[in-house]
Amino acid sequence: MKTLVQAQQLAIKILNNSRNELMLTFRFLDLALGKLKYLHGMYEGIGTDGRYLYYEPQEVFRVYKESSSRCNHLFLHMVLHCIFYHPFVKEDTKPDLWNLACDIAVEGIISELSLSQLEVDGEEEIRGKLESLKERYGTLTAGRLYRQFVTKGLALEEYERLRMLFEFDSHESWYGSKSQNSQQEKTQSKEQSREELFEDWQQISERVKVDMETVSKEWSDRSDNLVRNMNEVHKEHYDYEQFLKKFAVMVEEMKVSQEEFDYIFYTYGMELYEDVPLIEPLEYSENKKITEFVIAIDTSGSVEGELVKRFVTKTYNILSQQSNFHRKVNIHIIQCDAKIQRDDKITSDEEFEHYIEGLLLQGFGGTDFRPVFAYVDELIATGELTNLKGMIYFTDGKGVYPKTKPRYDTAFVFVDDTAQAPKVPVWAMKVVLTPQEIREGSKYEH
């Protein structure tokens, strides 16, 4: 027993040394580095679930014997997992692919820092593989990599090679504990819930982001992967349906206004004068309804036809909900690259179904946003559009914007999986949707 206690004490001393060295270097990570408590005996190897840093003394000794810098590397690797919420896994996540994506993401950050105190054996091989992965998949964030692995697949042989190269810690604690009856779990049950723990890490991560943008900006300048991973987890999400409702307009609907109609006087008149009501019900009430809308589609480059079809369908379905749509609608779906290619007018569900079934993209030239705005201005001038409130411009790239603000609200919807979509003019709204979000969800980043 004495030997075990001594081994634990020595292991903790080694871990503390790594923590202290990292704190001296990365001041903006002080809260994150100090958050984890040490716990022995729950899992094999070394890992964290965001609450504890689980360790086995012999594994700590093995890592430290290889080099103290590997210990530092491992500790930072685990803390970065927490800052980017990697241990807080969704129920339908594929563990093997998620684990690999998270490991590659944090190793991409550590590699860019290029610090001797974080060096490990095989450093050159890791950097070389990271470069090839970046060329193949683009930005090395956990979410993006995971989506790529799931949609495009990953051969078992390649998966094993990548796992052997990038796996530094155990992720077993991310997916539940081994024993529901352990004394450690009884201790955990008295502490904050998993949801509360996640909220703590959200606050810590937000603090790290602020520090990176101010007093510790040199680190964000040093690691592009660090910035991109931070941007991914701090995307602000809204309901896409609520976003579209911003384009609603006030119109009169011929129906009883429940808020202004007084049933007491109406009933009293009917009883007193038989068929003559004392007060007539109001025949209309004002409601926010969408009557006119423009959906512009950038056909200049790589937006795939199926993705366009899904986006247009999702947008139309939200707009055409009974609570949003007026009976008479006038929706223009305009295709444009550097010039107007096509304009389809939609006034009913039947017309939209016919349109979407035969949707064929036209164009594929350069990107210029201005022709659509000029064309819409013409539609307004000729009276084709009389009450236009908003336009959504669906695009995947940069283009030339109008210099002046149009008379209607405009949102540019970028198809991007990097959390680094182009900037838009101050008068426009920017929405960033990943291909996965277009296909499955109705959330977007503002």
Automatic annotation (TrEMBL):
Gene3D superfamilies, A to Z: von Willebrand factor, type A domain (3.40.50.410)
- Coiled-coil regions listed in the entry: none
Ranges for the VWA-like domain?
A: 294-433
What range(s) does the Putative metallopeptidase domain occupy?
Answer: 45-194
- What CDD domains is this protein classified in? vWFA
InterPro entries per UniProt: Put_metallopeptidase_dom (IPR025154), VWA-like_dom (IPR018698), vWFA_dom_sf (IPR036465)
Source organism superkingdom: Bacteria
PANTHER family registered for this protein in UniProt: SLL7028 PROTEIN (PTHR38730)
Name recorded for this polypeptide: Predicted metal-dependent peptidase
